[in-house]
Amino acid sequence: MSAQLEYTPLPQISEIHDRLRATYTSGVTRPLAYRRRQLLQLARLLQENAVAFENAELEDLGKPRQEVALVELGGTISSALRAAENLEEWMKPEKPTVEEWRNSWDTTIYKVPKGVALIISPWNYPVILSFNPLVGAIAAGCPVVLKPSESTPAISGLITSLVPKYLDPDGYAVVNGAVKETTALLDLRWDHIFFTGGTKIGKIVAAAAAKYVTPLTLELGGKSPVIVDTACDIQLAAKRVLYGKAQNSGQLCVSPDYILVPKAIVKEFNEAVKKTYEEFWPKTPFHPEAQWGKIVNPLHYSRVMTLIGRTKGEIIAGGEVDGVRRIATTVVANVQQADALMEEENFGPVLPILEVEDVDEAISIVASRPTPLVIYAFTDSEETKQKIVEKTNSGCICLNDTISQLGVHEIPFGGHGDSGYGAYHGKATFDIFTHRRGFINVPKEIEPYVAFRYPPYTEEGYKK
Ligand code: NAD
């Protein structure tokens, strides 16, 4: 039986908001020592309850323990620890180089918290997508209301019970609920909103943020393509794409959504996919060793099954179901651009392969579609790499692998165009919740040099 999530009563939502606002005004969340302690506590929360999180993810998403430990827990713990370690440096005021005559102005950029933040997270990676933004907000000195997804009740329930035990309850609170509760949250004034989810709901959040001119980070989705060049290791490409697609059964914002393969190598590529498939999952697909996650709920399950049912392509691997919302990674060849699988983000274990004339056609197809979160490409050619960089748009580009960009803390992670705006990971997450406050102190001694600016305006003053 699935867990029941208790929704936060509506009147409590504004009380929580007021409590956090008072905490922010008191200044308690600002000192380095406070922020660092909360970050270390967040790491402890995950370390000490790792098994409980694994169990909850198994219950809600059927996610393999290894994936939970590696991505959800390991990824978040290392973010929190890295932030705690680097925070003092990040917080330091900057002294920009100024024009020489202003050297005495004490020109400074202070890093101040934006204020009280709202984080709304999705269900697919419910720990890291809730806590990674939280790491940045804590580091920046912002109190936070976290609204996890109602679609993962066991995990959201666990987060709700643990946050007040580990973090300062006056600084960080969890609000649970669906549309009604989230709408009540969005009716309030926030100093930053961080939203991760689909584009449709992202637009609702953006409209609500606009009401108060609240700065917003929108981490959205989209169809992230894979371009396969003739100049590449085809077997390795097949292996790395299939690995990326299988993560969380394709319920990943940067999941490879469709593959574009030049006709000269499409046959060889399809064979390579089939061979890899047999190597990855040699037994029946639902043998326990297969360890595929579940589709989150019946609604999404029937959405994915309908897509598979509507495709005019040919299933060359997978396609089996187990009756408890598991679908084997399903590779579909000979897919046309007008196919059902090309309409919207598949967000499930379906991987269409489209044949194209050459890599140039692949690039122009990608460039003509809404801007994705990431473009994957497999190529050994410097020329192809340059064409992709110059002729397409995306949040990021990952060459010769899938998913690996998520682990590189030094590059920003975020969308562009239709896939959202604002980017985070590493120090960029701290920057999102930080206001860079300019400061100058103009010395009295410069008065003779600025006398010309005062009225009454004269011809002589103007000429100076
Ligand atoms: P979603 O947009 O349905 O829900 C996200 C959050 O919005 C949830 O907390 C939900 O309660 C809330 N919400 C739902 N309806 C709302 C409404 N009417 N008003 C206000 N809030 C509302 O997304 P999802 O189904 O949870 O996640 C899947 C989507 O998220 C996919 O499109 C995926 O690509 C995207 N995603 C993006 C990233 C990223 O980092 N860019 C990461 C994960 C998922």
Automatic annotation (TrEMBL):
GO terms for cellular component: cytoplasm. One of its GO terms (biological process) is aldehyde metabolic process. One of its GO terms (molecular function) is aldehyde dehydrogenase (NAD+) activity. PROSITE patterns: ALDEHYDE_DEHYDR_GLU. Residues 30-435 form the Aldehyde dehydrogenase domain. Keywords: NAD, Oxidoreductase. InterPro entries: Ald_DH/histidinol_DH, Ald_DH_C, Ald_DH_CS_GLU, Ald_DH_N, Aldehyde_DH_dom, Aldehyde_DH_NAD(P). The active site is at E219, C253. Gene3D superfamilies: Aldehyde Dehydrogenase, Chain A, domain 1, Aldehyde Dehydrogenase, Chain A, domain 2. Pfam families: Aldedh (PF00171). Belongs to the aldehyde dehydrogenase family. This is Aldehyde dehydrogenase. The lineage of its organism: Eukaryota, Fungi, Dikarya, Basidiomycota, Agaricomycotina.
